[in-house]
Sequence to fold (509 residues):
Amino acid sequence: MKAQMPAQATAQAQAAPSVPPGWEAVIGLEIHVELATESKIYCGCSTRFGAPPNTQVCPVCLGLPGSLPVLNEKAVEYAVRAGLALHCRIAPYAKFDRKNYFYPDLPKAYQISQYDLPLCRDGYLEVEVGGRTRRVGIIRVHLEEETGKLVHSTATIAGSRYSLVDYNRSGVPLIEIVTQPDLRTPEEARLFLEELRSVMQYLGVSDVKMEEGSLRCDANISLRRPGETRLGTKTEVKNINSLRAVERALRYEAYRQAAVLEDGGRIVQETRGWDEASGTTIPMRSKETVQDYRYFPEPDIPPLALDEAYVERVRQSLPELPAARRRRLMEQWQLPAYDAWVICQHPALAGFFEQAASRWKDGKTVSNWVMGEVLRILGASGEEPGVLAGRPEWVEHLVEVLRLVSAGRISANVGKEVLEESFKSGRAPEEIVRARGLEQVGDEAQLLAWVRQAIEANPDAVASYRAGKAQAAGFLVGQVMKLSKGKANPKTVGELMRRELGEPGTSSS
Fold:
């Protein structure tokens, strides 16, 4: 593998082990989470996503001379909620600082952030990796303001002829979560980010939609030989816009760095951008140091002094978080760990499951339908699981479908079709079944007639069955289902088929 890690080697790297053999990756994440406040952090402008460019701005978020910031109280509360959920110490005294740098999306030429006295520090988040629990340290969680958004003439900054600036996002409140370099593989980094996203959703502090930029992740990665304690030179990877891209970008960068080091080269400390189209990272600029930002205390915002009573009130308001909910659902409904993990990924999905399970009393059956059909229907319609929170009637639709299937009135396949139609139309499953004539045929005489018709029409399959090939019975049952247009009860059909043909390998009399 060449030191430059050419594009043609990308596919090989993505198919190989996540970290090059003979190397250990050291990974730390810097995660930006936009807070779901209605107004910006230092002014009253709306934070609504998708407004026409530069329509949600004012002198404060545009950085015009003479304008003064006023801190958003709800943003402080959300930051404290996040810090507590991540087991951080909440600082009784925190202050804001100016982070100075020049970039077109920063109208003031500085960002109001927090430097040496952040709001939250020294926490952790546990994540399940390969059946074991990994505790990843959280260095800090601090408040800061968003920058504007650069809109490039092409899909990425590379190759763009020009860039436009939309300042609607400028001043949206966010928290930056900085982890310890405790992650060791790209997969661990993705799983950590998935867990963190779920925690933020459960807290209600952010919608964490990566496609809208409300959750963004920069990843720092270096390599070292197994057993070494010294850290290698790191690179920072930016422009990662999906959970899948986090793993892919880090995997590529690990192989690129290994190729350079094994060729006798040196890693340059730099910021690199992830190019989704090519599956490669590309150099952007040399990595800044703390000194480059010339931090100094923000003179227009007084320090924060939070008393213990305030922090305790926020602590008492925290909901049950994903890890605790997974454990409870596994115990309460005897769910496998995988089912609990999928269902608890989103609070609305978990709430939907619990409502349906409490009505049906069979948690595993409900989880099968939720993980299979409910998520499939949502995906096909482009909806997120959050939509379930506003559709309580869908719980009743699912339970009614389960009742119809359990009673043998419709098959499971028909039930899936009915559930989808009921979700889309709002009509009750019972009504759909009656209107479309979907109820299963249970009349044994009619079923027997279809069975004999299928046997007569498929002598080769019958011969195979009588020769001992039991799977041929499945084909014959399928033919009966076609004849009945899906209305035959497959269990009864199978019994009648065995009665007519005998056991596999039995010659006809």
In short: Residues 47 and 281 are 31 Å apart (CA to CA). The mean pLDDT is 91.
